[in-house]
Amino acid sequence: MQELLSKALKRAEGLVDYCEIRFEDSQLLSIRFQGKGLDRINHDTQYGGNVRALCRGGWGFASFNNLADLDDSLQAACEQARFAGEAKQGTSQLAPVPIVNDTVIPVYTLDPRAVSLDEKVRILTHYSDLILGYDPAITSVSIIYNEKTTTLYFANSEGSYIKQEKLDIGANLGGLARRGDVTVSHGIGRGSSIGMDCILGLDADLQEACNILVQLLDAPQVQAGVYTTICDPAMAGLFVHEAFGHLSEADDIFRNPDIIKTMTLGRRLGRDILTIYDTGEYATGRGHLVYDDEGVASERTYLIKDGILVGRLHSRESAAAMGEKPTGSARAINYQHPPICRMRSTCIAPGTSTFADMIKDIELGVYAVGAHGGETNGEMFTFTAAYGYMIRNGQLAELVRDVQLMGNVFTTLANIDMVGNDAQADDSAGGCGKGEQSPLPTGSVSPHIRIQNVIIGGAR
Prior knowledge:
Elements: H1 2-10, E1 18-35, E2 37-55, E3 58-64, H2 70-88, E4 101-104, H3 117-134, E5 138-156, E6 161-179, E7 182-192, H4 203-216, E8 225-231, H5 233-245, H6 250-253, H7 257-262, E9 276-279, E10 301-305, E11 308-309, H8 316-322, E12 330-331, E13 340-341, E14 345-348, H9 355-359, E15 364-369, E16 374-377, E17 380-384, E18 387-392, E19 395-400, E20 404-408, H10 409-414, E21 416-419, E22 424-426, E23 443-446, E24 449-457
Parallel strand pairs: 4-6, 8-15, 14-23
Antiparallel strand pairs: 1-2, 1-5, 2-3, 5-6, 6-7, 8-24, 9-10, 9-14, 10-11, 12-13, 15-18, 16-17, 17-20, 18-19, 20-24, 21-24, 22-23
């Protein structure tokens, strides 16, 4: 493969300023339980590649499904780049990076290719039976297991060649319960980049989730208001990814003067206790990355350090445009797309506070647990917790449902007044959906955090 790609790249010499080729051979498996049992099993193959070329600041991109079409795609990408460059009349700028020649093979804890389909179905059927048999109020099961194994090749006109073997596993397991007019859902999520053992031994966790699910049927809606709020690691991870992480992706920043002004390095965004970073270093998580899709080594990138905005996530193009360093953050969901700036595992660094420290002086507050998703609009966000507990006089009180957190990301960052010492990873099925490249695997590692004056939506 290296010889084939190198020969193709030589044909781009003199035509464009830069050229790269990615080729992917992936096997995908999806198993879904819905309602009362197994719903479907899907197998799929992603086999193909792309050529991306740069000329006078203009990009060309062409994908193909057969290596026999590589030369035609290379010619098409180069022609597109030359046409775009003539129209742009610009200068090609890519931040310099080391030339790499490497092969990456994960150290698997349990390679899913060594486990039969029958055994995978048996494991998930056991969990389905456990959920449905826990309580008569649980009327439906929802289990999604996704598995992708990939061999990815990358070569560029600067001389880099990388072969990577990748694994991505994501699973959500839960149920739906009904009583009268009340319908609630809850479950657990798991994921890994090194083994399907992440879905083994989940009986106790699922029983705990089923217990919460049944209790939620009788739980009141939270009363809308403004509260001191403690977010568990899953909710803190959702907040840091959706509300702040996307604002740190530099391909959106360098083209938008308003965002450049808002995200000026050196701006204080939080207290000294707050440090946020993005990384590909955690091998067990779905955000694990050794090299990005531009052949740049992944690294820990600090975004906020001691409350100060200190960095952002870069591709080679955005780094050159802003005079900064590439961060190994250029990612594509598959060979049909060019890479764009994306998060890997976005993390809040642990602090020194215990949960007891956080809760003891709260007269009336909310403990938001788990993450059911949400949406952002510029600086504004709305996130839904899986459930919550009221905090009364320094103690956890009644279980509540329909807990929504709303607010402005910068105000919220400034209002984080305690950071826990108990960082936990959060991985599940699904992923990030930026640029219609969804679901790209990402992760988070965060501790509990306490935030003052959070708007909580609920009953009135």
